[in-house]
Amino acid sequence: MHDNLPFGGEPNADFRARIARRQAEAAEVRQRELLEQASVVNSPDLRIRIWERLHEVTMPLDAGHRLLGVIAAQTGLTLAQVQAEHYNRANPPAIAPPGAAADPMADVAPAARPG
Question: Which residue from 6, 27, 34, 85 lies 20 to 30 Å from 76 (Cα-Cα)?
């Protein structure tokens, strides 16, 4: 990052002020994200994803890992909610292959349909 270096001819005071502004902006963004990770407006999935991004850690694969309790505490979720999200990630819904009909009977002529 060249932004952490003084520009050619930039006075030291201006350089320090620029770095201080950048640090203040970064702290403000982090504070906002900390609030978002526990906001009841956000879904459990989003709150956990924000937590993962802030801490640069993904949710452990082990459903009994103690970090799930830490995630719950820091996101304002219950342990059961974090465990439910853990389960959802481990067991994603089946996705139909491209071109597959959503209704298995969609390709069957109406006269041949049961019922």
Answer: 27
b/e string for 29-39 if b means 16 or more Cβ within 10 A?
A: eeeeeeebbee
**d(Cα 33, Cα 92) in Å, to the nearest integer?**
26
60, 68 contact by CB (below 8 A): yes
If you search the block for the tokens 């069957």, which residue do you land on?
A: 108
Residues 34/54, Cβ–Cβ less than 8 Å: yes
Integer Cα distance of 88 and 74 in angstroms:
20
Residue 88 backbone class (left: φ over 0; alpha: ψ -120 to 50; beta: rest): alpha
8 Å CB contact between 83 and 92: no
Q: Does the structure show a pLDDT above 90 at 79?
A: yes
Q: Is the entire prediction scored with pTM above 0.70?
A: no
Number of C-beta neighbours around residue 44 at 10 A:
18
